[in-house]
Amino acid sequence: MTKQAEGADERPARGRGRRPADEVRADVFRAVGEVLLTEGIAGLTFERVARLSGVSKTTLYKWWPSKGALALDGYFHAVEQTLAFEDTGDIRADLLHQLRSFVRIMTTTPAGRVVTELVGQSQTDEDLATAFRTLYSSERRRLAGERLARARELGQIRADVDVQVLVDQLWGAVYHRLLIPDEPVTDDFVVALVGNLFDGVART
Amino acid sequence: MTKQAEGADERPARGRGRRPADEVRADVFRAVGEVLLTEGIAGLTFERVARLSGVSKTTLYKWWPSKGALALDGYFHAVEQTLAFEDTGDIRADLLHQLRSFVRIMTTTPAGRVVTELVGQSQTDEDLATAFRTLYSSERRRLAGERLARARELGQIRADVDVQVLVDQLWGAVYHRLLIPDEPVTDDFVVALVGNLFDGVART
């Protein structure tokens, strides 16, 4: 949004020669993540990312055909470390830890709005919906599924449980409150999500 | 969408004199529900509803300030019977029955698309978001909560369980798969939602 940088948005890649693709992508992800986590999707433009990353718009468009794809790929990488699935051997503690990190990002940074707006727009934009699933949600599902499957192998989750259903009953339940905010996303809520599933809600 | 009816959309209320408001509203809900469940929101216009219900556009606008409000109020009433919460005394069976009805409406009629599009648009339209919560989701939440609270009173659900969290882990989990369709909404999924919560997923 800075005026003085206008017209400078096609600045070529820094230095001479071609940088390795991984390095270029890392610079782009850093730039996209920075914008999304501080300003949200309103601040994200190809021009801005080109300026911040020193990667040409031509290259950006070659790898990310749309702003949605750029946002999702960048966002996935920006939150990957924060949303990593720890494995201390205690599945309940690890889930609680991860869900709290997820809730913190979604409720205390512009990321919450970024994600809910992208899910929102995905309902009427098939390309964005595909980008969302391919570049973000299916990967998050896979990572959650891996951690849950390890707990199942150790007998901490029953063998007959489909761990993908747990993804919907944990993270999906949080999404539900974020997308249709009839009830707040509190720490008690997060604790109850894990407790209900692991303890069962029926009288014992 | 019928061409011949164009220009006839301001047809006054049938018969003479003023009909009772409840009767007028019922006619409107019937018209809105009919359109939404057969064609989805694309077919819904104030003109069309005025024609089908015999209620003037002036009256419609007085009671429902936007198409979103009209759609949500009409949809709520259209599905109210189908989505009623039975009470046979068996909470697991009743939940399964209700969830199956909900999933059937969402996956086999245009209603699924209506609801996901309204949730989608609600992410960037504050008025629609308010209408969605006021006219639809908070009422559905209240009805679900009442049935679950009765089960809790009977000791079928533990006294320390916040039944509103169960709403997110049952219907919210379904919404998650409808809004971000990485995984399908199958009958096995519905059965697992109830089973995971009532049996608990930890090894016993």
UniProtKB/TrEMBL annotation, chains A, B:
InterPro entries in the record: Homeodomain-like_sf, HTH-type_TetR-like_transc_reg, HTH_TetR, Tet_transcr_reg_TetR-rel_C_sf, TetR_C
DNA-binding region(s) from the entry: 45-64
Record carries keyword Transcription regulation: yes
Keyword Zinc-finger: no
Signal peptide: none
Any single Pfam family the record assigns to this protein: TetR_C_11
Domain of life: Bacteria
Annotated region described as Disordered, given as residue ranges: 1-20
GO molecular function, one term: transcription cis-regulatory region binding
SUPFAM superfamilies found in the cross-reference section: Homeodomain-like, Tetracyclin repressor-like, C-terminal domain
Keywords on record: DNA-binding, Transcription, Transcription regulation
Domain HTH tetR-type intervals: 22-82
Protein name: TetR/AcrR family transcriptional regulator
Source species of the chain: Streptomyces lasalocidi
Higher taxonomy: Bacteria, Bacillati, Actinomycetota, Actinomycetes, Kitasatosporales
